[in-house]
């Protein structure tokens, strides 16, 4: 409690004591002094409360950022963007320190699959810049098939490792044959794994890695193939007919 407020309280107590004892003259003087001190205290409190520290002002108005997700652009705070990434199990990546037009830093929300696709695109770009373009012959275009067996109890980290392998094989022109099997009649998990693979190779559309063909479901197993982009182009040229190896 401030010394001014203590004085107000003391004068109020003196006024009450003098009033009870019958000393009205001194009681009135004490009352007047108490009123003056009370006015000064209230004035000081109102002046102090209007002064807001710079730190408080900054906390009430945090800096804004530009957030990009699936081609959608929004303006929010960095803290809100971090919370959104945590809720959606995504990664918040800063792609531009400061936009000269908006004067805001630019961030992007990415899934694990989208990060893998971007990493693969960067590798492709480095390879294309490092070596001259070579048109392969027909004999060189055909690559051996790659096979992959995935169990329904696979962990998220192991699945991400398999997705990296699939992306690497497809980028090199290999057809990938995949078998997803369940050990406990868990068809739901098998379907979820298939959806994850399908989303990974198709997202985003402009950087799709291949095309899923020959999908078959039998019991607790899902079997399908993924054609690399070169094979998809050949298939479209042949009027949608599969080659003998794909039929």
Automatic annotation (TrEMBL):
Keyword field contains Ribosomal protein: no
Keywords noted in UniProt: Initiation factor, Protein biosynthesis
Molecular function terms from GO: ribosome binding; translation initiation factor activity
Entries under InterPro entries matching the protein: T_IF-3_C_sf, Translation_initiation_fac_3
Gene Ontology BP terms: mitochondrial translational initiation; ribosome disassembly
Highest taxon of the lineage: Eukaryota
Cellular component terms per the entry's GO annotation: mitochondrion
Name of the featured protein: Translation initiation factor 3 N-terminal domain-containing protein
Organism in which the protein naturally occurs: Glossina austeni
Keyword Cell cycle: no
Family the UniProt entry places it in: Belongs to the IF-3 family.
